[in-house]
UniProtKB/TrEMBL annotation, chains A, B:
Pathway: Amino-acid biosynthesis; L-tyrosine biosynthesis; (4-hydroxyphenyl)pyruvate from prephenate (NAD(+) route): step 1/1
EC main group: oxidoreductase
Stored PANTHER family: PREPHENATE DEHYDROGENASE, PREPHENATE DEHYDROGENASE [NADP(+)]
Highest rank taxon of the organism: Bacteria
Reaction equations catalysed: prephenate + NAD(+) = 3-(4-hydroxyphenyl)pyruvate + CO2 + NADH
Species of provenance: Nocardioides anomalus
Single Gene Ontology MF annotation: prephenate dehydrogenase (NAD+) activity
Domain named ACT: residues: 286-353
Protein name as catalogued: Prephenate dehydrogenase
Length: 353, 353
């Protein structure tokens, strides 16, 4: 059994590389750094991410965190100059694998991809907490040594992430859906703002800021990423174009049904994204409470429900003018209902179980 | 001169109506509520947003906060049954104006639109703070009484928002750019997720969540909004489709330049959005600091710069191995440079002014 004891060499002290180095340092593992840019290397060292690699260093694991176009060459170099396990953290997995698949030592290579980043770049934007609770794709190939796979999975967990194992091809299909196509649509949403008079953009709210945030990312980097995954991205974009055509026709003809279909699919799509903590969206249930029919009681109920820490998703009030109490239905996540009931009962509310 | 003293009648106790009612109540203004749904009305009252409107009430201002398809009829009703100033807070302004433009009393009508919302809906999602610091479009028509315009502007400021005056047509062009087209692209980004195997969505990171967040909004409501502004939205969508075609051709041919153009326009678009506090993006400047060339000093500098509360946007290190100190360039917002210099000097750093 392998165990990650270090040292770990991180090649590329940008946002992701420096964040990995900081996370490993936090975990007590020695980190060796290298970067073509002296600024990046010194900044990362200065931030406490590790020390510059030196002659004679023998890393247990090399993490290649360089832009997509450089991945193949840098992974190859790491396999040749060390006997370490080698992973890369590039956003596309089939292409770098193809570049090294025939090399001696390729059994020591296991691709990976932490699903965390930022529209900012460079070591100054790095954070030891960047990967906490995030998925980290682990993409072994047919000849990957199982011990090497285990070591890269341990890298992910020591950085605070949750490893998710996928084939390189499945990974690339997945990120076309979850990252590359959303990024391109964000770029289109942001780009069309340039056609508006400057003072019209004063009406920008939080919505457009959220939709376009990722489009602020380094265009050189994203050009490389999307191009490296062109085949998967193209398949999806052609489908998106068809649906966009449908919206255009629907608006032109006043066909509300066809527009609603796209909007409803959008709602379903947001619900298909797993919950922040990796689980699926939770089912809801109802909690029933009797509420005296005089002013202030409903406000008191909402305040007490709020104090319980349970998020109220919806409410219905069954009010019969002939009675002195109403029955209030609070809709909450199913696994929070018991806590809400107990909490309300402790504050003297009459609940209906 | 008019002054907003109340009472204000809010018609429609959904997310926006209840939030306005809560904000006005917070400001000490009496609020009268009405809604077709008893649940909504009781929930809003229970939250402390106001009391249900009663016969004999004479509001100073009526705020119509109902779905777009109902706006014309409800504004007309408010003009006919009261002598109050009437505004609506609908997301599109030309169409409701057209519905009431010929009515007697139309000089008392001034459209408006707070640029704040949520992918959630209903009174339970409401907040008195929803409009704090947000723009609120005020869209007088040719016959609007100036006192009525001033009263609606005061509504916006009393709710914590910043009034932005625009013609109804300019407003509708502006929100096509800043709201409706981004929403539709978010819906397309979310909808294409439905084509992915469920476990592939485990790779969803913060990016796709942000891009798609608004697409979770009520499809019935957004169908009405986008349809009400079909002409403006169509013009922009046809341009977006052309650019999407360009991306597809670029990916198909491996034409990196054409892809980069769309990505670069996206970056420029995100920069065109005014800063959160309404101002334009700030210019940057450099602060120079001498740093002794031994371990730990750079980390100490970053820690001290961080303690100053000034965000370091970039760093360059001018390191001459023959000297015992290096010169570090910290790039910061221009109007924060003086504070950073003073702060570093107070911690004994040698700066270069």
């Amino acid at each position: 059994m392998s165990e990650l004891t270090g040292p770990v060499e991180v090649v590329g002290a940008g946002l992701v590389g420096t964040s990995i180095a900081l996370a490993l340092t936090r975990a007590g593992i020695e980190v060796l750094l290298s970067d073509r840019s002296d600024d990046h290397l010194r900044t990362a060292s200065g931030l406490g991410a590790g020390r510059p690699v030196a002659a004679g260093d023998r890393p247990q694991l090399v993490v290649v965190a360089v832009p997509p176009d450089a991945l193949g060459a840098v992974i190859r170099d790491a396999l040749e100059r060390t006997d370490a396990v080698v992973t890369d953290v590039g956003s596309v997995k089939s292409r770098p694998l193809a570049a090294v698949a025939e090399l001696p030592g390729v059994e020591r290579y296991v691709g990976s991809h932490p699903m965390a980043g930022s529209e900012r770049s460079g070591p100054l934007a790095a954070s030891a907490a960047l990967f906490d609770g995030r998925p980290w794709a682990i993409t072994p190939h047919g000849s990957s040594d199982p011990d090497a796979v285990a070591l890269v999975e341990e890298l992910a967990t020591r950085c605070g992430a949750t490893p998710v194992r996928l084939s390189p091809a499945d990974h690339d299909r997945a990120v076309a859906h979850t990252s590359h196509v959303p990024h391109l649509l964000a770029s289109l949403a942001a780009g069309q703002l340039l056609g508006a008079p400057r003072d019209h953009l004063d009406l920008s709210g939080q919505g457009v800021r959220d939709v376009t945030r990722v489009a602020a990312g380094d265009p050189g980097l994203y050009g490389q990423i999307v191009s490296s995954n062109a085949e998967q991205v193209l398949t999806l974009l052609i489908d998106v174009r068809e649906r966009l055509d449908g919206v255009i026709v629907a608006l032109d003809r006043g066909d509300r049904d066809r527009l609603d279909e796209v909007l409803r699919d959008g709602v379903a799509g947001t619900r298909a994204i797993p919950g922040k903590h990796g689980g699926p969206a939770r089912p809801s249930t109802s909690v029933w409470v009797s509420v005296p029919d005089h002013p202030g009681e409903l406000a008191r109920l909402f305040a007490d429900a709020g104090a319980s820490g349970v998020n109220i998703e919806d409410v219905h009030i069954d009010h019969d003018p002939g009675r002195e109490t109403g029955l209030v239905e609070l809709v909450v996540e199913a696994d929070r209902a018991e806590h809400l009931l107990t909490s309300l009962e402790s504050r003297s509310w009459v609940t209906h179980r």
